[in-house]
Amino acid sequence: MALPQSAYKGREFIAVIGDEDTVTGILLAGVGHVTDPPDSQKNFLVVDAKTENSTIEDAFNRFTKERKDIAIVLINQHVADKIRPRVDEYKEAFPSLLEIPSKDHPYDPEKDSVMKRVRKLFGE
Length: 124
What we know:
With 124 residues, the protein is α/β, with parallel strands linked by helices. The protein has a single domain (10-121), classed as ATPase, V1 complex, subunit F (Rossmann fold). The protein is 34% helix and 17% strand. Strands 2-1-3-4 form a four-stranded parallel beta sheet, sandwiched between helices. It starts with 12 loop residues before the first strand and ends with a helix. The model has no long low-confidence stretch (mean pLDDT 90).
């Protein structure tokens, strides 16, 4: 069953949670956006070894629940692994959640939450 237009109307941005190289590349492609003041919010989070899991989870929740202008959330798979229970329980159509590889961490389809659901649909 198709979603009503209200479910995706106004969703025009891509959010990124990832390592510095990934976020920089996505921002250089023109995806960066900052909301208007007074509560200026960025549509990206750069994660490094010092970034706490709670910070990653807060950004994930902000992009998937609070912001109604985000259509797609890109997250590096190795970052998604840090908050895997939260990522696996996310099942909404909008914003869509896509796990992507990074330069130093290859993509593993066995870990991808979307691929897990696809395999379940096909009875694997």
